[in-house]
User: Fold this.
Amino acid sequence: MKNRNPAMKKAIPETKHTAYDLELEQALRTIHEKYGNDFQAFLRDVQETIRKRNAKTKTTACIL
Amino acid sequence: MTPNPAFRINPDRSIYVRGTIDRELVRSLTPQILALQYESRDPITVFIDSPGGSPDDMLDLLNLLKAPDQDSNPPCNIITAAVTNAYSAAADLLAFGDYAVAFPNSRILFHGGRVPTATEVTAERSSILALFLRLKNEDSAMDLAKEIQIRFMLRFVTSRHEFDGLRTGEANPDLSDLECLIRYIRPKLSTAAQNILTKARARYARYEEMVESVIKKRSQIKAAKTQAEIEAVELKAIVDFEVKQNKNNPDWKFQSLGLTSLTDDFLLFRSYEDVLESESYKSLCVQYGMFLVSDEITKETNLIANEDERIGRWTDLASPFLKPIWAFFVALCHTLQQGEDEFLSAEDAYWLGLIDEIIGKDDLVHMRYFRENMPTVQPEASSPAAA
Assistant:
């Protein structure tokens, strides 16, 4: 079904990916300062945070 | 952890792209999109279950979704989500989202362009159609690569700490980052995606040789030349490359397929150069450079006060690492856009850089985690970049 006519090419709007993303740069800089290149350590911390949050939500739900 | 709405699907502010993407679908979704945009500039989720359709209508839909408002506010952030199937133009729509997610059992399909013909096809017309499709595929592949390069680069940067283990395992300390990345990704992919990876690897090897030979010839230019004269040198280098590549094929000649390859390679080379000089490539170098060089060099580079100079320095530092990965990614996008009906799983799409996140998979690194789980670290006051 693809049928794009190059002569009538329509522009793809700019996305966050193509725009300069200062916020992402800041986030990556902060992660690099704490974890260096070890993204697995970062991931483990995130998983732990999620686990704790989910446990807290369950506990709150049980109390209610 | 603070949930960030720019990275989370939200059925309360969403549209559903269901069925074939055509004029009628765009018409029916337009009032909904305008109402959501009028209500607020918060993100809009686009849930996708579609066999594809017209790329032009898909782009109309995307342009409408990304429209500014009368006060010139930036467009709403678009989160695309493959619910079940995202094929063809719907796969492009998925990939073009500011943040793209897929449900675990969704299927994604990229393939080459097609032209429906209502009349009988003659030999002359078939060759024109073949050229048209080839150019269209090249064009679509570069569009895709430019839009989503940040995802594949993130796969590279976040996997890189595993590469030394791979080098040790193979007793090959000289294994390049790209070879390590391919070896790291391959076992995580379905057979169909592994085939795509293999084809992309072969395509990349050809690109590298071609690009290297053109750059070498161009570097021999002494006097100032016009753009057309520079392109003539590049074309001659590609002619020599094609002849060398096909020296063992007695049937090969420019008169038949050779001229088409020459056109393809020339256009590819020009696009390749354009992207490597683009702002988006430079921003990749700035964002990911720190993960590729030593802490000492990172600190030194971030202390450069002049922004243009700092970006230039990061581009120089990161390019030896990122260029081969980027070139491979371009080859991958070309393989996807020229392929024939290779269905990909959500996991394939993640590892090939086509989406950001798989719903429910908490063992994969993605952008949302970066935005929602920023560790608290005091920025160094002396660093202009940290200010």
